[in-house]
Each structure stands twice: as C-alpha cells, then as structure tokens.
UniProtKB/TrEMBL annotation:
One of its GO terms (molecular function) is hydrolase activity. This is Bifunctional GNAT family N-acetyltransferase/carbon-nitrogen hydrolase family protein. Keywords: Hydrolase. Pfam families: Acetyltransf_1, CN_hydrolase. Residues 13-209 form the N-acetyltransferase domain. PANTHER family: HYDROLASE YHCX, NITRILASE-RELATED.
Amino acid sequence: MTEKQEESSPHLLVTRTLDMGDYDRIVAIMHKCYPMMKGDIWLKSQIKKLIRIFPEGQLCVEDRGEVVAFALSIIVDYKKYGDSHSYEQIIDDSNFGTHTADGDVLYGIDVCVDPDYRGMRLGRRLYDMRKELCENLNLRSIVAGGRIPNYHKYKDQYTPKEYIQKVRHKEIYDPVLYFQMSNDFHVRKILKNYIPYDKASGSYAVLIEWNNIYYNEDDTHFGNQKNFARIGAVQWQLRAARSIDSFFENVEFFVDAVSGYQADFLVFPELFNAPLMAEFNEDTAAKAIRKLAQYSNEIRDKMVEYAVSYNINIIAGSMPVYEDENLYNVSYLCRRDGSYEAQYKIHVTPAERNDWGMIGGDKVQVFETDTAKIGILICYDSEFPELSRILADQGMEILFVPFATDMHNGYNRVRVCSMARAIENECYVVISGSVGNLPKVVNMDIQYGQSAVFSPSDFAFPHNAIVSEGTPNTENTIIADVDLNDLKHLHMHGSVRNLLDRREDLYKVKFKK
C-alpha cells in the first residue's frame, strides 16, 4: 500500500543537510530566485567551507533526490556585531571567519526555494528546521537580514518604516517580509546598504529575529531550571492541636507524604496554624490572633528545616505576623536550599480589617526557585487581576494561592478568579485551602475548601483547564505534574496569546511604588 502511494504521488520530499553533490542545484535555484541581483551566486569553495565548519547549519529539501530548496546559516557571537552591520560584515566577505561554535545567535545567510515549488511551504520547512537547530544548540535566537523585494514598487510613496507597517497590516504584500512575520519573526531594525546591489529592496533590509523561548542561560545561583514541576497541595483538615509539637506532627506528616513522590513544591492553606489559636479563645479576636503571631517565626523556621531535610520547596500557607505594631497576613516560601522569602497579603478582607485590625502589604514579586519562577497571592489577592499581571510581566510560571473560605460562595470566588488568572497570565495556578471546623476558635470556626491545580485553556492543556483537584471538604492531598515548556510554547504559538497581544500602546499595569 505504501509503495503504491509513493508511486502515485507527484512529490516525495525529504529534509536533510547539504553535501557537495548538491552544488549544481544550488546554483540553478539561485539563478531562478535572484534574476535582479548580480554577482550573488555562491562559489563552490564557499559552500564547501560552510559544510566543513558548520555542517548541521546547511539545510535543504529534496524532491525525489533533487534539491528544490536550501538554507545556509552560521553561528555568531552577536554582541561583536550588534544591529548595525552589513551582509558582507556578517559573512566576513564570504570567508565566514565570523562563525564560532561559542556564539549565541544562529544567523541566517540565505534561503532559496525553487520558484516551481513555491506554494508548497518549503520555506516554512526550512525555517522550522532552523528553529529546531537553534533549540537543540541552545542558542539565544535566529537573526537575519531580510530583503523587502517589493519595496521598489512603493519607494516613492512610503519610507521603509511605513512600508513595513503596511505589510504588517496586510495593506501591501511583500513575499519575504510577510513570510518572516508569519513565522514568528519580529523586526529589530531597518538596515541601510545591507546589500548595496539589491535594487529591488532599495538596498534596504529588515533585521529580523526569532527568539528561542527554550534558551537556557546558566544561572549561577539556582542552576538550570527544569522543564516540568511536580506540585503537591494540602487540603488541610483543621483539627485541635494540643501543643505546638502536635501541630508540627500534623504538618510533618504531609511534608513527608508529598516529598515521597519527589515533588518540587508543597503548599499549605492560608492561616493553616489557626488550631493554635484555641488556647487564646477567651481573649478578643484581635488579641487572640496577635498571640497566635508569637508562633509564626518558630513555624517559619521549622518549615525551612522541613524543606531542607525533605528536599522540597514549601509554600507555608500564611500566618499572622506582628511587626512594628502592625498585624499582617504573610506567606513564606521556604526553599530546599535553606533560604526563605516572604509575601505579604496586599488586600485584607473587611473581616480581617474589622475583627483583627490587619493591614495589607505593599509589594508583590516573583520568587526564583530551582524549578520555576513562582508567585504567591494569598486568598483575596487572587481576586485582583492587576497583581497577577504584574507577576506575569516578571516571568511567573506558577502562581500559588493559599486560601481560607468559610462558605461555598466565598470558595467559588477564589476558584473562579484563580482559573481566570491562569488563562489571562498563561501560567499554572495552585490553590490550597482548609476544610472542617474549629469550634473553639472565633473567626475560623468553619471552613469550605477544595484544592486544585489550574492551567491555561489551550490545546496542550486539559480541556477543562483543571490539571487536578481534591475531593471537596475532605482532608487529602493532590499531586500534579505540570509542563513548563508548554507555557513557553503557549506564549508564542497559542491559539490566543493573552500576554503577547496586549495593547500596551493603550494601557499598562504597574506598581506606583
């Protein structure tokens, strides 16, 4: 069956690297492609050198054994040349002394498709091969000087900048620039005299770039980050704690259990230490929570100890912190390297303000970890989209939301808003809440919760944008794996691109401080 299909097909396309036996076809294709450009045919010695110094960068598509399209490239240390270079400079007058295996940019020096094969998307195949090569070699980007061969038709009407805008808005068609923009390249700069004899382009070229979203530059502090993360979220049963030691026994049980699955993160709910407030129940609510705050440093230090000994990054829910005669609601990131950082709740609820006298913090930030860039928003903060957008602009990949809600409608606010945050910021969102009741604790007497991990809503993710979720109102844990590369791909190639398509020419979200 396969043989009959091949015999009846007019084409049999194969992508591969070039060899010197392809040289005559290279010349023939160039004569067809560049009739208006003189002296622009690659010499056999030049192709031979390119194949010798960088064989994997010289690519072609063949049809039944005959080359019908090809692409040539080198690797350069881009900072040596910058954005104001000519074609001859970047190829070292065709000697290719600019090529270096230690460079950071794949520079495209030629792409040619036999005109008889146009419409078959062979150029796209070659560009996809270049992108794969760029990713495999861990290069920062692909850069090239793109011709604008239809500019000569409009040079009396438009400047090059205006011409590019017209092409971008599809009011003018330019075969090269339109193709490059359709393949996720963006314009860095307009170059004058890039190829002086390119009369069709008016000697102009457009410096274009495609960024490798998988580029991984060594991080001297945290090392190379992983491509996936394993996340554990505790659906925490509020139960009486006879002492701080019995409270730690309950906490350590979950740390031990989740770390046994080699998880990277574990998150506890908001005010998960509330059981310890029972001993202060005879005080007013405001006094009781301030006395509870006396335990917070000890709990934080113990969580750091657990993070190190169990080799897991812990988001320690949240705890009341009393400092400078002010009461805050604070979550701690306790890293498995022994360091920790704090995220203060920004928006306190009316109950927190009126019953406890809490105030909000004044800063949100993305935290670096050995696995991913994360953000933390405590409960009510998840209902303010500006905060997570600020974190997304800082490169957040996973947002953790420890929460505490007493009724189903309060839980729904956190859940629905967290799902929205995942979609609009193209990140994963993990929510962790408490269940059960504490009869002797004012303001924390009853809880409703369901922990979950949410994703963006696109092809690479679950159809309902829910990676995992616990059983409502029952103590349990959820363990979920999330692919961080799927986020990077979504940013550039999603069916919709909420971050990339923002109209920053009209609006922007930022902190005033």
